[in-house]
Amino acid sequence: MQTKDVLSTNTAITKALLVCGVVAGPLFTVAWIVEGATRINYDPLRYPISSLSIGDGGWMQIATFIITGLFILAFAIGLRRALRPSGSVWGPALVGLAGIGLIGAGIFVADPLNGYPPGTPVIPTERTTHGILHDLFGIPFFLGLPITSFVFARLFARRGLTGARYISRAAEQAAAASIFFKLKHR
Questions:
Q1: Hey, which of 70, 127, 166, 179 has its CA 20 to 30 A from 138?
Q2: Torsion angle, CA of 154/159/162/163, rounded to 10 degrees?
């Protein structure tokens, strides 16, 4: 009886950790859209989401980065628990690195870019330590997510989960395309 209680507790904890992953994306998206809509002169096609962490209302985007990063980190732990013992190690590790990247991006505020916030130069004259660290913490997120999708697509293919494999491949392509789009429109 005691073993069953432990298993059901572990299953409940794992499910709760996995729910964090379901919540993280929509939470982040709604938060930056609302924040961006309330900021004067903010254009999401021109300025990175990180620009919302600058200034008086920046605490909201900073909190969004950190909270979402914590949710993604919890999700990574849930993935590892759910896939254990024969599942992917790299997939959950890469998801965890993406979460750490978001937490770091929240701790270190971006430098002004492209003239945002208003009154700042279009091309930054000096990079700050915070801005450099913010950009470095973005690497595991922006590069890690497409690679994570590739890793999970391989796992799903090995397990014969064709639909999941195709969804994962589509997510990989969408992530890569969004990065390309953003870099092209800087």
A1: 166
A2: -90
Question: Under a CB-based contact definition with an 8 Å cutoff, are residues 135 and 97 in contact?
Answer: no
What is the distance between the alpha carbons of residues 66 and 50, in angstroms, rounded to a whole number?
12
pTM listed for this prediction = 0.83
pLDDT in tens, 32-61: 999 999 998 899 888 889 999 998 899 999
Angle in degrees, CA 176, 182, 186, rounded to 5: 150
Query: How many alpha carbons fall within 13 Å on the CB side of residue 99?
Result: 21
CB atoms within 10 A of CB 112: 21
Q: What band does 5 get if pLDDT is binned at 50, 70 and 90?
A: very low
Instruction: Enumerate residues 6+ apart whose C-beta is below 8 A from 80.
Output: 87, 89, 92, 93
Residue 36 CA to residue 51 CA, distance in Å, equals 9
Beta bridge partners of 116: 113
115: left (phi over 0), alpha (psi -120 to 50) or beta: left
Residue 78 and residue 15: Cα distance in Å, rounded? 7
d(CA 69, CA 73): 6
Please report, as a single letter, which amino acid is at residue 141. Answer: F
| CA quadruple 98, 101, 106, 108: dihedral, nearest 10 | -170
